[in-house]
UniProtKB/TrEMBL annotation:
Protein name: Fe2OG dioxygenase domain-containing protein
Cofactor field: L-ascorbate
Molecular-function annotations in GO: dioxygenase activity; iron ion binding; L-ascorbic acid binding; oxidoreductase activity, acting on paired donors, with incorporation or reduction of molecular oxygen
InterPro entries for the chain: Oxoglu/Fe-dep_dioxygenase_dom, Pro_4_hyd_alph, Pro_4_hyd_alph_FE2OG_OXY
Domain Fe2OG dioxygenase, first and last residues per copy: 75-172
Pfam families noted in UniProt: 2OG-FeII_Oxy_3
SMART domains in alphabetical order: P4Hc (SM00702)
UniProt KW Glycoprotein keyword: no
Keywords recorded for this protein, A-Z: Dioxygenase, Iron, Metal-binding, Oxidoreductase
Amino acid sequence: MDSDITDLTDKIFEENIEWQKHKWADTQGEVVNSDDIDVVYHGEVLTDEKLYQEIFKHITQYGNTDYGKWARQTGLEHLSDFRFNRYEANTFMAEHVDHIRSLFDGEQKGIPVLSIIGLLNDDFTGGEFVLCDEVIPLKKNSLMIWPSVFLYPHKVMPIKSGTRYTFVGWAW
């Protein structure tokens, strides 16, 4: 990722951001509240479109792969609003899959095809990103894109020290 992008996202490191506990819907559609990671949504901290443009550039590059060619044929042209995640010491993301049936938040509607994570800092220990039981080394400005299907379980290992900041989104 372009280093200018993480400069744009520096606002999430400010003390006055109102972080919320992570919530998600289980397979029955029930909302589950997390005691672990904190989240804040794109529109609350960032309005610059450069982040979206940078992500679409990488999705286009990903489109040159076999899976990407298939994704393009499905009409891949939308990107969800980003969610910023804050992991503090002893927090983690349990293993899960992004087999999201749909994104329905009022304005955005679609079935995610690609999952996206961007690492905004690397001054922490622990917090390794694990995809399909393989540790994927991510550094500041790293961007990871993979299919949003049940075949790609992933997790974030517990943070040992410092604070890990990422953004996540989905394309369809």
